[in-house]
Amino acid sequence: MSDLALKEDGLTIEEMAAALGAANTNKERSPSIGALKINSFGEDANGDQIPLGAFFLNNQNPRVYAKEGVRFRAFTNHIQYQHWDDGKLLNKSLLVINQKAQARDQLGGEMCGMPTYEQSMALSPKEREEYIGRDRYRIIRGVVSYTGTTAKGEEVTIENEPCVLSLKRKNYGPFYHDVTNRMPKDVSNLWDFESILKADKIKNDKGAVYYVMRFTPQFGNLLEVDQMVSDTIKHTFGLVANENKRIDEAYKSASMQAADEAYQDEIMDQVNTLEHDFA
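Above: the chain sequence. Below: its structure as C-alpha coordinates.
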Protein backbone atom coordinates (compact mmCIF):
# COMPACT_ATOMS: atom_id res chain seq x y z
CA MET A 1 0.00 0.00 0.00
CA SER A 2 2.86 2.38 0.85
CA ASP A 3 4.29 2.10 -2.67
CA LEU A 4 0.95 2.69 -4.34
CA ALA A 5 1.05 5.71 -6.66
CA LEU A 6 -2.06 7.85 -6.40
CA LYS A 7 -3.73 8.10 -9.79
CA GLU A 8 -5.00 11.63 -9.25
CA ASP A 9 -1.60 13.29 -9.38
CA GLY A 10 0.99 10.52 -9.64
CA LEU A 11 2.39 11.07 -6.13
CA THR A 12 3.21 8.18 -3.84
CA ILE A 13 1.87 7.98 -0.29
CA GLU A 14 5.32 8.97 1.02
CA GLU A 15 5.46 12.03 -1.26
CA MET A 16 1.96 13.07 -0.22
CA ALA A 17 2.87 12.67 3.46
CA ALA A 18 6.00 14.81 3.03
CA ALA A 19 4.06 17.51 1.17
CA LEU A 20 1.37 17.57 3.87
CA GLY A 21 3.84 17.60 6.76
CA ALA A 22 2.56 14.21 7.89
CA ALA A 23 5.76 12.19 7.44
CA ASN A 24 7.77 10.97 10.42
CA THR A 25 10.91 13.14 10.44
CA ASN A 26 12.51 11.29 13.36
CA LYS A 27 13.71 8.41 11.20
CA GLU A 28 17.45 7.87 10.87
CA ARG A 29 18.93 10.35 8.39
CA SER A 30 21.74 9.71 5.95
CA PRO A 31 25.16 10.76 7.30
CA SER A 32 26.27 14.29 6.51
CA ILE A 33 29.36 15.04 4.45
CA GLY A 34 32.07 16.45 6.67
CA ALA A 35 34.22 19.50 6.07
CA LEU A 36 37.97 18.86 6.06
CA LYS A 37 39.59 21.46 8.30
CA ILE A 38 42.90 22.35 9.98
CA ASN A 39 42.98 22.45 13.77
CA SER A 40 44.11 25.80 15.16
CA PHE A 41 43.30 25.15 18.84
CA GLY A 42 45.43 23.41 21.45
CA GLU A 43 42.60 21.41 22.97
CA ASP A 44 39.12 20.15 22.16
CA ALA A 45 35.81 20.90 23.88
CA ASN A 46 36.61 18.29 26.55
CA GLY A 47 40.00 19.83 27.39
CA ASP A 48 41.98 17.04 25.72
CA GLN A 49 45.16 18.11 23.93
CA ILE A 50 45.02 17.93 20.13
CA PRO A 51 47.82 18.68 17.65
CA LEU A 52 47.96 22.15 16.13
CA GLY A 53 48.00 22.20 12.35
CA ALA A 54 46.43 18.74 12.11
CA PHE A 55 43.72 17.88 9.58
CA PHE A 56 40.36 16.53 10.74
CA LEU A 57 36.79 15.94 9.56
CA ASN A 58 34.31 17.98 11.58
CA ASN A 59 31.44 15.46 11.31
CA GLN A 60 33.22 12.60 13.08
CA ASN A 61 32.78 11.60 16.70
CA PRO A 62 35.38 11.23 17.99
CA ARG A 63 37.40 13.37 15.61
CA VAL A 64 40.55 11.89 14.10
CA TYR A 65 43.59 14.17 13.66
CA ALA A 66 46.60 13.77 11.35
CA LYS A 67 49.45 16.13 10.42
CA GLU A 68 51.08 13.90 7.80
CA GLY A 69 50.03 11.42 5.14
CA VAL A 70 46.69 13.09 4.38
CA ARG A 71 45.66 12.23 0.81
CA PHE A 72 42.90 14.15 -0.94
CA ARG A 73 41.26 13.27 -4.28
CA ALA A 74 39.23 16.15 -5.69
CA PHE A 75 36.06 15.73 -7.76
CA THR A 76 34.90 19.35 -8.10
CA ASN A 77 36.34 22.87 -8.08
CA HIS A 78 33.83 25.70 -7.72
CA ILE A 79 33.64 29.32 -6.61
CA GLN A 80 30.86 30.46 -4.29
CA TYR A 81 30.14 33.78 -2.58
CA GLN A 82 28.80 33.64 0.97
CA HIS A 83 27.59 36.19 3.52
CA TRP A 84 27.88 35.25 7.20
CA ASP A 85 27.02 37.22 10.32
CA ASP A 86 27.62 36.03 13.87
CA GLY A 87 27.96 32.41 12.75
CA LYS A 88 24.76 32.48 10.68
CA LEU A 89 24.67 32.08 6.91
CA LEU A 90 22.60 34.96 5.49
CA ASN A 91 23.10 34.44 1.77
CA LYS A 92 25.06 32.38 -0.75
CA SER A 93 25.50 32.30 -4.49
CA LEU A 94 25.44 29.63 -7.14
CA LEU A 95 28.43 27.33 -7.34
CA VAL A 96 30.18 28.62 -10.46
CA ILE A 97 33.21 27.44 -12.41
CA ASN A 98 35.01 30.78 -12.68
CA GLN A 99 34.75 34.43 -11.67
CA LYS A 100 33.34 35.45 -15.06
CA ALA A 101 30.19 33.37 -14.51
CA GLN A 102 27.05 35.09 -13.20
CA ALA A 103 26.98 34.20 -9.50
CA ARG A 104 23.29 34.76 -8.74
CA ASP A 105 22.48 34.56 -5.03
CA GLN A 106 19.54 33.58 -2.84
CA LEU A 107 18.43 37.15 -2.13
CA GLY A 108 18.02 38.13 -5.77
CA GLY A 109 21.41 39.74 -6.26
CA GLU A 110 24.82 38.62 -7.46
CA MET A 111 27.97 37.66 -5.53
CA CYS A 112 26.12 38.36 -2.25
CA GLY A 113 26.64 42.06 -2.98
CA MET A 114 30.43 41.81 -2.90
CA PRO A 115 32.42 44.32 -4.94
CA THR A 116 34.76 43.11 -7.64
CA TYR A 117 38.49 43.11 -6.93
CA GLU A 118 38.93 46.35 -8.86
CA GLN A 119 36.03 47.98 -6.98
CA SER A 120 37.33 46.83 -3.59
CA MET A 121 40.74 48.38 -4.27
CA ALA A 122 39.05 51.77 -4.64
CA LEU A 123 37.17 51.50 -1.33
CA SER A 124 38.25 53.30 1.81
CA PRO A 125 38.76 51.27 5.03
CA LYS A 126 35.44 52.67 6.30
CA GLU A 127 33.61 51.62 3.12
CA ARG A 128 35.08 48.12 3.32
CA GLU A 129 33.46 47.61 6.72
CA GLU A 130 30.12 47.30 4.94
CA TYR A 131 31.29 44.04 3.39
CA ILE A 132 32.59 42.34 6.52
CA GLY A 133 31.31 38.77 6.59
CA ARG A 134 31.08 38.48 2.80
CA ASP A 135 33.74 36.34 1.17
CA ARG A 136 34.59 34.44 -1.95
CA TYR A 137 35.11 30.73 -1.29
CA ARG A 138 36.71 27.91 -3.24
CA ILE A 139 34.46 24.89 -2.71
CA ILE A 140 36.12 21.56 -3.48
CA ARG A 141 34.39 18.21 -3.00
CA GLY A 142 36.28 14.95 -2.92
CA VAL A 143 37.43 12.05 -0.76
CA VAL A 144 40.14 12.00 1.91
CA SER A 145 42.27 9.17 3.29
CA TYR A 146 44.65 9.17 6.27
CA THR A 147 45.66 7.42 9.46
CA GLY A 148 45.43 9.59 12.56
CA THR A 149 44.64 9.56 16.24
CA THR A 150 41.76 10.74 18.39
CA ALA A 151 42.23 13.15 21.30
CA LYS A 152 42.39 10.03 23.54
CA GLY A 153 45.27 8.59 21.48
CA GLU A 154 43.33 5.89 19.62
CA GLU A 155 44.67 5.24 16.11
CA VAL A 156 42.05 5.30 13.36
CA THR A 157 42.34 4.86 9.58
CA ILE A 158 40.04 6.78 7.28
CA GLU A 159 39.75 5.62 3.69
CA ASN A 160 38.06 7.47 0.82
CA GLU A 161 35.78 9.45 3.13
CA PRO A 162 33.62 12.02 1.25
CA CYS A 163 34.35 15.58 2.34
CA VAL A 164 34.25 19.19 1.27
CA LEU A 165 36.87 21.94 1.47
CA SER A 166 35.54 25.45 2.00
CA LEU A 167 38.49 27.78 1.45
CA LYS A 168 38.56 31.58 1.68
CA ARG A 169 41.02 34.49 1.81
CA LYS A 170 44.62 33.18 2.12
CA ASN A 171 43.33 29.61 1.63
CA TYR A 172 41.43 30.49 -1.55
CA GLY A 173 44.37 30.57 -3.96
CA PRO A 174 46.66 27.58 -3.19
CA PHE A 175 44.52 24.93 -4.91
CA TYR A 176 44.73 26.90 -8.15
CA HIS A 177 48.46 27.59 -7.87
CA ASP A 178 49.41 24.14 -6.51
CA VAL A 179 47.09 21.94 -8.58
CA THR A 180 44.92 23.22 -11.44
CA ASN A 181 47.52 25.62 -12.84
CA ARG A 182 50.13 22.86 -12.87
CA MET A 183 48.12 20.00 -14.37
CA PRO A 184 50.10 18.42 -17.23
CA LYS A 185 48.47 17.85 -20.62
CA ASP A 186 48.27 14.07 -20.14
CA VAL A 187 46.08 14.45 -17.03
CA SER A 188 42.42 14.87 -17.99
CA ASN A 189 40.56 15.41 -14.73
CA LEU A 190 41.06 16.29 -11.08
CA TRP A 191 40.02 12.81 -9.97
CA ASP A 192 42.86 11.19 -11.94
CA PHE A 193 45.28 11.80 -9.05
CA GLU A 194 45.54 12.53 -5.34
CA SER A 195 47.22 15.43 -3.57
CA ILE A 196 49.19 15.20 -0.34
CA LEU A 197 48.05 17.92 2.05
CA LYS A 198 50.20 20.10 4.26
CA ALA A 199 49.30 22.91 6.68
CA ASP A 200 51.63 25.92 6.47
CA LYS A 201 51.77 27.91 9.70
CA ILE A 202 51.63 31.66 9.09
CA LYS A 203 52.01 34.51 11.60
CA ASN A 204 50.76 37.95 10.58
CA ASP A 205 52.16 41.36 11.55
CA LYS A 206 49.98 41.45 14.67
CA GLY A 207 51.25 38.09 15.89
CA ALA A 208 48.10 36.12 15.08
CA VAL A 209 48.72 32.58 13.83
CA TYR A 210 46.71 30.87 11.10
CA TYR A 211 47.17 27.92 8.75
CA VAL A 212 47.13 27.73 4.96
CA MET A 213 46.26 24.45 3.25
CA ARG A 214 48.80 23.47 0.58
CA PHE A 215 48.59 20.68 -1.99
CA THR A 216 51.27 18.47 -3.52
CA PRO A 217 49.60 16.79 -6.52
CA GLN A 218 50.79 13.28 -7.37
CA PHE A 219 50.75 13.67 -11.16
CA GLY A 220 53.17 10.78 -11.53
CA ASN A 221 50.78 8.32 -9.91
CA LEU A 222 47.55 8.38 -11.93
CA LEU A 223 44.59 6.52 -10.45
CA GLU A 224 41.88 4.39 -12.03
CA VAL A 225 38.27 5.47 -12.20
CA ASP A 226 36.68 2.38 -10.63
CA GLN A 227 33.02 1.87 -9.76
CA MET A 228 33.41 3.59 -6.39
CA VAL A 229 34.87 6.69 -7.98
CA SER A 230 32.29 6.68 -10.78
CA ASP A 231 29.43 6.44 -8.29
CA THR A 232 30.95 9.20 -6.14
CA ILE A 233 31.33 11.50 -9.14
CA LYS A 234 27.68 10.97 -10.10
CA HIS A 235 26.55 11.56 -6.51
CA THR A 236 28.67 14.72 -6.25
CA PHE A 237 27.29 16.01 -9.54
CA GLY A 238 23.78 15.53 -8.12
CA LEU A 239 24.67 17.42 -4.93
CA VAL A 240 26.00 20.41 -6.89
CA ALA A 241 23.07 20.41 -9.32
CA ASN A 242 20.53 20.27 -6.50
CA GLU A 243 22.19 23.06 -4.54
CA ASN A 244 22.33 25.32 -7.59
CA LYS A 245 18.69 24.53 -8.36
CA ARG A 246 17.63 25.57 -4.84
CA ILE A 247 19.67 28.78 -5.02
CA ASP A 248 18.33 29.68 -8.46
CA GLU A 249 14.75 29.14 -7.26
CA ALA A 250 15.41 31.43 -4.30
CA TYR A 251 16.99 33.99 -6.65
CA LYS A 252 13.93 34.00 -8.92
CA SER A 253 11.54 34.25 -5.96
CA ALA A 254 13.49 37.15 -4.43
CA SER A 255 13.72 38.91 -7.82
CA MET A 256 9.96 38.58 -8.37
CA GLN A 257 9.26 39.93 -4.89
CA ALA A 258 11.59 42.88 -5.48
CA ALA A 259 9.90 43.64 -8.82
CA ASP A 260 6.45 43.43 -7.21
CA GLU A 261 7.49 45.77 -4.40
CA ALA A 262 8.93 48.23 -6.91
CA TYR A 263 5.67 48.12 -8.86
CA GLN A 264 3.64 48.73 -5.70
CA ASP A 265 5.90 51.66 -4.79
CA GLU A 266 5.37 53.13 -8.26
CA ILE A 267 1.58 52.80 -7.90
CA MET A 268 1.69 54.51 -4.50
CA ASP A 269 3.81 57.34 -5.92
CA GLN A 270 1.19 57.88 -8.62
CA VAL A 271 -1.64 57.83 -6.05
CA ASN A 272 0.18 60.32 -3.85
CA THR A 273 0.75 62.59 -6.85
CA LEU A 274 -2.96 62.49 -7.75
CA GLU A 275 -3.94 63.26 -4.15
CA HIS A 276 -1.57 66.23 -4.18
CA ASP A 277 -3.07 67.52 -7.47
CA PHE A 278 -6.60 67.43 -6.07
CA ALA A 279 -5.66 68.85 -2.67
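The CA atoms of residues 220 and 240 lie 29 Å apart.
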